[in-house]
Automatic annotation (TrEMBL):
Annotated NCBIfam families: PRK01346.1-4
Binding site for acetyl-CoA: V82, S83, V84, R90, R91, G92, I93, L94, T95, S118, E119
Catalytic-site annotation from UniProt: Y123 (proton donor), F409 (proton acceptor)
Assembly mode: Homohexamer; trimer of dimers.
Name listed for the protein in its UniProt record: GNAT family N-acetyltransferase
Domain N-acetyltransferase positions: 3-149
Family designation: Belongs to the acetyltransferase Eis family.
Record keywords: Acyltransferase, Transferase
Domain of life: Bacteria
Length: 409
Protein backbone atom coordinates (compact mmCIF):
# COMPACT_ATOMS: atom_id res chain seq x y z
CA UNK A 1 0.00 0.00 0.00
CA UNK A 2 1.27 3.49 -0.79
CA UNK A 3 -0.06 6.36 1.22
CA UNK A 4 0.53 9.94 0.25
CA UNK A 5 1.10 12.45 3.01
CA UNK A 6 0.37 16.07 2.18
CA UNK A 7 -0.70 19.33 3.78
CA UNK A 8 -4.41 19.77 4.09
CA UNK A 9 -6.35 21.82 1.58
CA UNK A 10 -9.32 23.77 3.01
CA UNK A 11 -11.63 22.00 0.54
CA UNK A 12 -10.66 18.65 2.12
CA UNK A 13 -11.32 19.65 5.72
CA UNK A 14 -14.79 18.10 6.12
CA UNK A 15 -13.69 14.70 4.84
CA UNK A 16 -10.51 14.91 6.88
CA UNK A 17 -12.38 15.80 10.07
CA UNK A 18 -14.84 12.98 9.41
CA UNK A 19 -11.95 10.48 9.50
CA UNK A 20 -10.87 11.91 12.85
CA UNK A 21 -14.40 11.72 14.27
CA UNK A 22 -14.79 8.11 13.16
CA UNK A 23 -11.42 7.10 14.67
CA UNK A 24 -12.59 8.62 17.95
CA UNK A 25 -15.76 6.53 18.00
CA UNK A 26 -17.98 8.07 15.37
CA UNK A 27 -19.90 10.52 17.56
CA UNK A 28 -20.04 13.71 15.53
CA UNK A 29 -18.82 16.92 17.12
CA UNK A 30 -21.47 19.54 17.82
CA UNK A 31 -21.68 22.17 15.05
CA UNK A 32 -20.13 24.93 17.22
CA UNK A 33 -17.20 22.68 18.18
CA UNK A 34 -16.68 21.66 14.57
CA UNK A 35 -16.70 25.30 13.50
CA UNK A 36 -14.19 26.25 16.18
CA UNK A 37 -11.77 23.48 15.20
CA UNK A 38 -12.09 24.44 11.57
CA UNK A 39 -11.40 28.09 12.39
CA UNK A 40 -8.35 27.12 14.44
CA UNK A 41 -6.95 24.79 11.76
CA UNK A 42 -3.61 26.07 10.49
CA UNK A 43 -3.83 24.55 7.05
CA UNK A 44 -0.13 24.75 6.24
CA UNK A 45 0.64 22.71 9.40
CA UNK A 46 -2.08 20.09 9.17
CA UNK A 47 -1.46 16.83 7.33
CA UNK A 48 -3.69 14.30 5.65
CA UNK A 49 -2.68 10.77 4.69
CA UNK A 50 -4.37 9.65 1.48
CA UNK A 51 -4.88 6.24 -0.08
CA UNK A 52 -5.91 7.36 -3.55
CA UNK A 53 -8.79 9.76 -2.96
CA UNK A 54 -9.54 8.21 0.43
CA UNK A 55 -8.41 10.14 3.49
CA UNK A 56 -6.95 7.59 5.93
CA UNK A 57 -4.93 9.66 8.39
CA UNK A 58 -5.01 13.05 10.11
CA UNK A 59 -2.52 15.06 12.17
CA UNK A 60 -1.95 18.72 12.85
CA UNK A 61 0.28 21.13 14.72
CA UNK A 62 -0.92 24.34 16.33
CA UNK A 63 1.44 27.28 16.72
CA UNK A 64 1.95 27.79 20.43
CA UNK A 65 4.49 29.32 22.76
CA UNK A 66 5.16 27.20 25.82
CA UNK A 67 6.10 28.67 29.20
CA UNK A 68 9.21 26.90 30.48
CA UNK A 69 10.92 27.00 33.91
CA UNK A 70 12.31 30.48 34.41
CA UNK A 71 9.35 32.03 32.56
CA UNK A 72 10.56 32.14 28.95
CA UNK A 73 7.98 31.61 26.24
CA UNK A 74 9.36 29.11 23.72
CA UNK A 75 7.94 28.20 20.29
CA UNK A 76 6.28 24.80 20.45
CA UNK A 77 4.25 22.78 17.99
CA UNK A 78 1.00 21.61 19.56
CA UNK A 79 0.44 18.19 18.03
CA UNK A 80 -3.26 17.53 17.63
CA UNK A 81 -6.09 15.69 15.86
CA UNK A 82 -4.04 12.57 15.23
CA UNK A 83 -5.94 9.62 13.84
CA UNK A 84 -5.69 6.73 11.40
CA UNK A 85 -8.73 5.11 9.77
CA UNK A 86 -9.61 1.76 11.35
CA UNK A 87 -9.29 0.12 7.93
CA UNK A 88 -5.66 1.27 7.69
CA UNK A 89 -4.36 0.98 11.24
CA UNK A 90 -1.09 -0.67 12.27
CA UNK A 91 0.55 -0.20 8.88
CA UNK A 92 2.84 2.61 9.94
CA UNK A 93 0.70 5.61 8.94
CA UNK A 94 0.94 7.22 12.38
CA UNK A 95 4.68 6.65 12.31
CA UNK A 96 4.98 8.35 8.93
CA UNK A 97 2.93 11.32 10.13
CA UNK A 98 5.07 11.67 13.28
CA UNK A 99 8.21 11.49 11.13
CA UNK A 100 6.99 14.24 8.80
CA UNK A 101 5.72 16.40 11.63
CA UNK A 102 8.93 16.35 13.65
CA UNK A 103 10.96 17.10 10.51
CA UNK A 104 8.62 20.04 9.77
CA UNK A 105 8.84 21.36 13.33
CA UNK A 106 12.60 21.19 13.19
CA UNK A 107 12.66 23.02 9.85
CA UNK A 108 10.38 25.69 11.33
CA UNK A 109 12.83 26.20 14.19
CA UNK A 110 10.50 25.01 16.93
CA UNK A 111 12.62 23.29 19.57
CA UNK A 112 9.67 21.64 21.31
CA UNK A 113 6.56 19.64 20.52
CA UNK A 114 3.74 19.10 23.00
CA UNK A 115 0.53 17.10 23.00
CA UNK A 116 -2.20 15.67 25.14
CA UNK A 117 -2.67 11.99 24.37
CA UNK A 118 -5.85 9.95 23.95
CA UNK A 119 -3.81 7.02 25.33
CA UNK A 120 -0.53 7.58 27.17
CA UNK A 121 1.15 4.61 25.52
CA UNK A 122 1.11 5.93 21.97
CA UNK A 123 3.79 8.62 21.94
CA UNK A 124 6.75 7.40 24.01
CA UNK A 125 8.14 5.59 20.96
CA UNK A 126 8.33 8.95 19.19
CA UNK A 127 10.33 10.53 22.04
CA UNK A 128 7.54 12.18 24.04
CA UNK A 129 7.68 12.04 27.83
CA UNK A 130 4.98 13.02 30.31
CA UNK A 131 6.07 16.53 31.29
CA UNK A 132 3.03 17.49 33.33
CA UNK A 133 0.49 15.52 35.29
CA UNK A 134 -2.96 16.67 36.34
CA UNK A 135 -5.29 15.79 39.17
CA UNK A 136 -8.96 14.97 39.07
CA UNK A 137 -11.14 14.44 42.10
CA UNK A 138 -14.49 14.72 43.81
CA UNK A 139 -14.84 16.72 47.01
CA UNK A 140 -17.51 15.36 49.34
CA UNK A 141 -18.86 18.72 50.39
CA UNK A 142 -21.14 17.18 53.02
CA UNK A 143 -18.03 16.17 55.01
CA UNK A 144 -15.14 18.37 53.91
CA UNK A 145 -14.64 21.81 55.45
CA UNK A 146 -12.46 24.51 53.92
CA UNK A 147 -10.06 26.76 55.80
CA UNK A 148 -9.46 29.77 53.62
CA UNK A 149 -6.54 32.21 53.72
CA UNK A 150 -6.65 35.74 55.06
CA UNK A 151 -8.18 38.13 52.57
CA UNK A 152 -10.71 35.67 51.18
CA UNK A 153 -13.62 37.64 52.63
CA UNK A 154 -12.36 40.70 50.77
CA UNK A 155 -13.06 38.99 47.44
CA UNK A 156 -16.55 39.56 46.07
CA UNK A 157 -18.26 37.16 43.70
CA UNK A 158 -20.59 37.93 40.84
CA UNK A 159 -22.39 35.64 38.40
CA UNK A 160 -21.70 36.59 34.80
CA UNK A 161 -22.71 35.45 31.36
CA UNK A 162 -19.87 33.21 30.11
CA UNK A 163 -19.80 34.76 26.64
CA UNK A 164 -20.04 38.35 27.86
CA UNK A 165 -17.30 37.79 30.44
CA UNK A 166 -15.03 35.90 28.06
CA UNK A 167 -12.59 38.81 27.63
CA UNK A 168 -12.01 39.32 31.36
CA UNK A 169 -11.60 35.56 31.93
CA UNK A 170 -9.14 35.36 29.06
CA UNK A 171 -7.24 38.30 30.60
CA UNK A 172 -6.87 36.33 33.86
CA UNK A 173 -5.64 33.33 31.87
CA UNK A 174 -3.17 35.49 29.95
CA UNK A 175 -1.72 36.91 33.18
CA UNK A 176 -1.14 33.39 34.51
CA UNK A 177 0.50 32.01 31.35
CA UNK A 178 4.03 33.31 32.09
CA UNK A 179 3.85 32.17 35.73
CA UNK A 180 3.53 28.41 35.22
CA UNK A 181 5.59 26.06 33.08
CA UNK A 182 3.34 24.12 30.73
CA UNK A 183 0.95 26.96 30.00
CA UNK A 184 0.51 28.01 26.40
CA UNK A 185 0.29 31.37 24.70
CA UNK A 186 -2.06 30.79 21.79
CA UNK A 187 -3.23 32.57 18.69
CA UNK A 188 -6.43 34.65 18.65
CA UNK A 189 -9.49 32.44 18.41
CA UNK A 190 -8.61 30.17 21.33
CA UNK A 191 -10.60 32.36 23.73
CA UNK A 192 -13.70 30.67 22.22
CA UNK A 193 -12.58 27.23 23.41
CA UNK A 194 -13.64 27.57 27.10
CA UNK A 195 -17.12 28.55 25.96
CA UNK A 196 -17.80 25.34 24.05
CA UNK A 197 -20.80 23.83 25.77
CA UNK A 198 -22.77 21.57 23.44
CA UNK A 199 -26.04 20.49 25.10
CA UNK A 200 -25.29 16.89 24.07
CA UNK A 201 -22.19 16.86 26.29
CA UNK A 202 -23.86 18.10 29.46
CA UNK A 203 -24.99 14.73 30.88
CA UNK A 204 -27.89 16.17 32.82
CA UNK A 205 -25.98 19.21 34.06
CA UNK A 206 -26.82 22.85 33.49
CA UNK A 207 -25.44 25.01 30.73
CA UNK A 208 -22.03 26.55 31.41
CA UNK A 209 -22.04 29.00 34.31
CA UNK A 210 -19.46 31.63 35.16
CA UNK A 211 -18.67 33.25 38.48
CA UNK A 212 -16.22 36.14 38.63
CA UNK A 213 -14.02 36.94 41.63
CA UNK A 214 -13.43 40.67 42.06
CA UNK A 215 -11.46 42.92 44.35
CA UNK A 216 -11.68 46.69 44.19
CA UNK A 217 -13.62 46.44 40.93
CA UNK A 218 -10.90 44.33 39.26
CA UNK A 219 -11.52 40.76 38.11
CA UNK A 220 -9.00 38.60 39.98
CA UNK A 221 -10.34 35.18 39.08
CA UNK A 222 -13.16 33.16 37.59
CA UNK A 223 -14.69 29.74 37.58
CA UNK A 224 -16.53 28.05 34.74
CA UNK A 225 -18.76 25.28 36.00
CA UNK A 226 -22.07 23.49 35.63
CA UNK A 227 -24.52 22.20 38.23
CA UNK A 228 -26.06 18.77 38.10
CA UNK A 229 -28.84 19.01 40.65
CA UNK A 230 -30.00 16.18 42.90
CA UNK A 231 -32.93 15.35 40.65
CA UNK A 232 -31.00 15.21 37.36
CA UNK A 233 -31.47 11.97 35.41
CA UNK A 234 -28.86 9.32 36.16
CA UNK A 235 -27.59 11.50 38.98
CA UNK A 236 -26.31 10.11 42.26
CA UNK A 237 -26.58 13.26 44.31
CA UNK A 238 -26.15 16.78 43.08
CA UNK A 239 -22.73 17.91 41.99
CA UNK A 240 -20.88 20.98 40.87
CA UNK A 241 -18.74 20.14 37.85
CA UNK A 242 -15.80 22.52 37.61
CA UNK A 243 -14.62 23.17 34.10
CA UNK A 244 -12.01 25.82 34.85
CA UNK A 245 -10.99 27.77 37.93
CA UNK A 246 -8.28 30.40 37.92
CA UNK A 247 -7.28 33.06 40.42
CA UNK A 248 -4.56 35.66 40.39
CA UNK A 249 -3.83 35.13 44.08
CA UNK A 250 -4.59 32.61 46.84
CA UNK A 251 -7.54 34.54 48.27
CA UNK A 252 -9.22 34.76 44.86
CA UNK A 253 -8.84 31.02 44.28
CA UNK A 254 -10.03 30.16 47.79
CA UNK A 255 -13.10 32.37 47.40
CA UNK A 256 -14.01 30.49 44.22
CA UNK A 257 -13.49 27.04 45.78
CA UNK A 258 -15.51 28.07 48.85
CA UNK A 259 -18.35 29.26 46.63
CA UNK A 260 -18.39 26.07 44.55
CA UNK A 261 -18.32 23.90 47.66
CA UNK A 262 -21.42 25.60 49.02
CA UNK A 263 -23.81 25.51 46.06
CA UNK A 264 -27.27 24.56 47.32
CA UNK A 265 -28.72 21.15 46.47
CA UNK A 266 -25.34 19.66 45.68
CA UNK A 267 -23.18 17.35 47.76
CA UNK A 268 -19.95 17.20 45.78
CA UNK A 269 -17.58 19.22 43.65
CA UNK A 270 -16.03 17.35 40.74
CA UNK A 271 -12.93 18.67 39.06
CA UNK A 272 -10.36 17.46 36.60
CA UNK A 273 -7.20 18.72 34.99
CA UNK A 274 -5.97 20.59 38.06
CA UNK A 275 -2.26 21.16 38.77
CA UNK A 276 -0.60 18.70 41.14
CA UNK A 277 0.40 21.49 43.53
CA UNK A 278 -3.06 23.06 43.58
CA UNK A 279 -4.05 25.10 46.64
CA UNK A 280 -7.34 23.23 47.23
CA UNK A 281 -5.43 20.30 48.80
CA UNK A 282 -4.40 22.57 51.66
CA UNK A 283 -7.77 24.26 52.07
CA UNK A 284 -9.67 21.02 52.70
CA UNK A 285 -10.07 19.35 56.07
CA UNK A 286 -9.93 15.82 54.67
CA UNK A 287 -8.05 15.12 51.47
CA UNK A 288 -9.19 11.47 51.44
CA UNK A 289 -12.75 12.61 50.89
CA UNK A 290 -11.62 14.42 47.76
CA UNK A 291 -10.45 11.24 45.98
CA UNK A 292 -7.55 12.81 44.07
CA UNK A 293 -6.36 10.80 41.07
CA UNK A 294 -3.27 11.44 38.99
CA UNK A 295 -3.35 11.45 35.22
CA UNK A 296 -0.84 12.24 32.50
CA UNK A 297 -1.53 15.67 31.01
CA UNK A 298 1.08 17.29 28.79
CA UNK A 299 3.52 15.15 26.81
CA UNK A 300 6.72 16.96 25.84
CA UNK A 301 9.20 16.20 23.04
CA UNK A 302 12.53 17.96 22.65
CA UNK A 303 12.75 18.46 18.90
CA UNK A 304 16.16 20.11 19.22
CA UNK A 305 17.85 19.02 22.44
CA UNK A 306 20.46 21.80 22.51
CA UNK A 307 18.06 24.67 21.76
CA UNK A 308 15.38 23.32 24.11
CA UNK A 309 17.73 22.90 27.07
CA UNK A 310 19.14 26.40 26.47
CA UNK A 311 15.66 27.93 26.34
CA UNK A 312 14.90 27.35 30.03
CA UNK A 313 16.78 28.26 33.18
CA UNK A 314 17.84 26.02 36.08
CA UNK A 315 16.96 26.62 39.68
CA UNK A 316 20.43 25.56 40.88
CA UNK A 317 23.80 25.62 39.10
CA UNK A 318 24.30 22.61 36.86
CA UNK A 319 27.18 21.35 34.74
CA UNK A 320 26.55 17.87 33.37
CA UNK A 321 27.19 15.86 30.24
CA UNK A 322 24.18 13.91 28.98
CA UNK A 323 24.49 10.85 26.76
CA UNK A 324 21.21 11.13 24.88
CA UNK A 325 19.55 8.31 22.99
CA UNK A 326 17.11 9.38 20.28
CA UNK A 327 16.40 6.77 17.62
CA UNK A 328 13.51 8.69 16.05
CA UNK A 329 15.32 12.06 15.73
CA UNK A 330 18.97 10.98 15.42
CA UNK A 331 20.21 14.57 15.17
CA UNK A 332 19.71 14.75 18.94
CA UNK A 333 21.61 11.57 19.78
CA UNK A 334 25.00 11.73 21.47
CA UNK A 335 26.69 13.85 24.11
CA UNK A 336 25.57 17.27 25.23
CA UNK A 337 27.12 19.45 27.94
CA UNK A 338 24.54 21.51 29.79
CA UNK A 339 25.90 24.39 31.86
CA UNK A 340 23.40 26.67 33.49
CA UNK A 341 21.81 28.33 36.48
CA UNK A 342 18.88 30.60 37.29
CA UNK A 343 20.11 33.24 34.85
CA UNK A 344 20.60 31.16 31.70
CA UNK A 345 22.19 28.11 30.13
CA UNK A 346 24.28 26.78 27.28
CA UNK A 347 23.97 23.30 25.86
CA UNK A 348 26.60 22.25 23.34
CA UNK A 349 27.99 19.12 21.73
CA UNK A 350 30.91 17.59 23.59
CA UNK A 351 33.25 14.64 23.44
CA UNK A 352 33.66 14.59 27.24
CA UNK A 353 32.77 11.56 29.32
CA UNK A 354 29.02 11.39 30.10
CA UNK A 355 27.62 12.01 33.60
CA UNK A 356 24.08 10.81 32.91
CA UNK A 357 22.62 8.50 30.28
CA UNK A 358 18.99 8.76 29.25
CA UNK A 359 16.72 8.88 26.24
CA UNK A 360 15.14 12.02 24.84
CA UNK A 361 11.86 10.82 26.31
CA UNK A 362 13.19 11.25 29.84
CA UNK A 363 14.47 14.72 28.97
CA UNK A 364 10.94 15.54 27.81
CA UNK A 365 9.48 14.19 31.06
CA UNK A 366 11.89 16.24 33.19
CA UNK A 367 11.92 19.35 31.00
CA UNK A 368 9.15 21.35 32.68
CA UNK A 369 10.31 20.50 36.19
CA UNK A 370 7.33 18.31 37.03
CA UNK A 371 9.04 14.92 36.99
CA UNK A 372 12.38 14.54 38.72
CA UNK A 373 15.36 12.83 37.13
CA UNK A 374 15.88 11.01 40.45
CA UNK A 375 12.38 9.61 40.17
CA UNK A 376 12.99 8.50 36.58
CA UNK A 377 16.28 6.93 37.69
CA UNK A 378 14.41 4.95 40.33
CA UNK A 379 12.60 3.25 37.43
CA UNK A 380 15.87 2.63 35.62
CA UNK A 381 15.09 5.24 32.98
CA UNK A 382 18.07 7.49 33.81
CA UNK A 383 21.53 6.18 34.66
CA UNK A 384 23.99 8.17 36.75
CA UNK A 385 27.56 7.68 35.53
CA UNK A 386 29.32 10.20 37.79
CA UNK A 387 28.71 10.34 41.51
CA UNK A 388 26.51 13.27 42.42
CA UNK A 389 25.51 14.12 38.85
CA UNK A 390 21.99 12.71 39.13
CA UNK A 391 21.09 14.76 42.20
CA UNK A 392 22.78 17.86 40.80
CA UNK A 393 20.81 17.69 37.55
CA UNK A 394 17.59 16.64 39.25
CA UNK A 395 17.63 19.62 41.63
CA UNK A 396 18.54 22.01 38.81
CA UNK A 397 15.72 20.78 36.54
CA UNK A 398 13.08 21.22 39.26
CA UNK A 399 10.50 23.97 39.32
CA UNK A 400 9.01 25.68 42.38
CA UNK A 401 5.67 25.71 40.57
CA UNK A 402 4.38 22.45 39.10
CA UNK A 403 3.78 22.50 35.36
CA UNK A 404 0.15 22.70 34.33
CA UNK A 405 -1.93 23.00 31.21
CA UNK A 406 -5.47 24.13 32.04
CA UNK A 407 -7.05 23.09 28.75
CA UNK A 408 -6.80 20.49 26.02
CA UNK A 409 -6.08 21.08 22.35
C1 LIG B 1 -2.37 14.10 20.08
C2 LIG B 1 -3.57 13.30 19.70
O1 LIG B 1 -4.26 13.68 18.81
S1 LIG B 1 -3.89 11.85 20.50
C3 LIG B 1 -5.06 10.98 19.50
C4 LIG B 1 -4.56 9.68 18.96
N1 LIG B 1 -5.64 9.09 18.17
C5 LIG B 1 -6.50 8.17 18.63
O2 LIG B 1 -6.41 7.69 19.75
C6 LIG B 1 -7.63 7.77 17.70
C7 LIG B 1 -7.80 6.24 17.61
N2 LIG B 1 -6.56 5.55 17.21
C8 LIG B 1 -6.01 5.75 15.99
O3 LIG B 1 -6.44 6.55 15.18
C9 LIG B 1 -4.77 4.91 15.65
O4 LIG B 1 -4.92 3.64 16.21
C10 LIG B 1 -3.43 5.53 16.10
C11 LIG B 1 -3.28 6.92 15.50
C12 LIG B 1 -3.36 5.65 17.61
C13 LIG B 1 -2.29 4.62 15.64
O5 LIG B 1 -2.15 4.68 14.23
P1 LIG B 1 -1.41 3.51 13.38
O6 LIG B 1 -1.24 4.01 12.00
O7 LIG B 1 -2.15 2.25 13.59
O8 LIG B 1 -0.01 3.44 14.10
P2 LIG B 1 1.33 2.78 13.50
O9 LIG B 1 0.96 1.66 12.58
O10 LIG B 1 2.20 3.84 12.92
O11 LIG B 1 1.97 2.22 14.84
C14 LIG B 1 3.26 2.48 15.26
C15 LIG B 1 3.53 1.70 16.51
O12 LIG B 1 2.73 2.22 17.58
C16 LIG B 1 1.98 1.17 18.17
N3 LIG B 1 0.68 1.73 18.55
C17 LIG B 1 -0.19 2.33 17.71
N4 LIG B 1 -1.27 2.71 18.41
C18 LIG B 1 -1.08 2.33 19.69
C19 LIG B 1 -1.88 2.43 20.86
N5 LIG B 1 -3.09 3.01 20.85
N6 LIG B 1 -1.36 1.93 22.01
C20 LIG B 1 -0.15 1.35 22.02
N7 LIG B 1 0.63 1.22 20.92
C21 LIG B 1 0.17 1.70 19.77
C22 LIG B 1 1.84 0.13 17.10
O13 LIG B 1 1.59 -1.14 17.62
C23 LIG B 1 3.18 0.22 16.41
O14 LIG B 1 4.14 -0.50 17.17
P3 LIG B 1 5.32 -1.33 16.49
O15 LIG B 1 6.10 -0.31 15.69
O16 LIG B 1 6.07 -1.91 17.64
O17 LIG B 1 4.65 -2.33 15.60
Amino acid sequence: MTTELRVLDPSEWDRWFGVLELAFGGVPEAPEARQLWRDLTEFDRFLGAWDGDLCVGTAGAFTFRLTVPGGASVPAGGVTMVSVAGTHRRRGILTSMMRRQLDDLRAAGEPLAVLTASEPEIYGRFGYGVGAYAVRGTIDTTRVRLTVPEGTDGVSLRMADPAESSAVCEAVHTKLVPLRPGMLARRPGWEREPLLDPPGDREGASALLCVLAERGGEVVGFAHYAIRPEWAPAGSGGSVNVRRLMGLDPAAEAALWRFLCSVDLTSSVRFRGRPVDDGWQHLVSDVRRCEPTLRDALHVRLVEVGAALEARTYQAPVDVVFEVEDAFCPWNAGRWRLTGDAKGATCVRTGDAPDLALSVRELGAAYLGGTSLVSLASAGRVRGLREGALVEASVAFGSPVAPWLPHGF
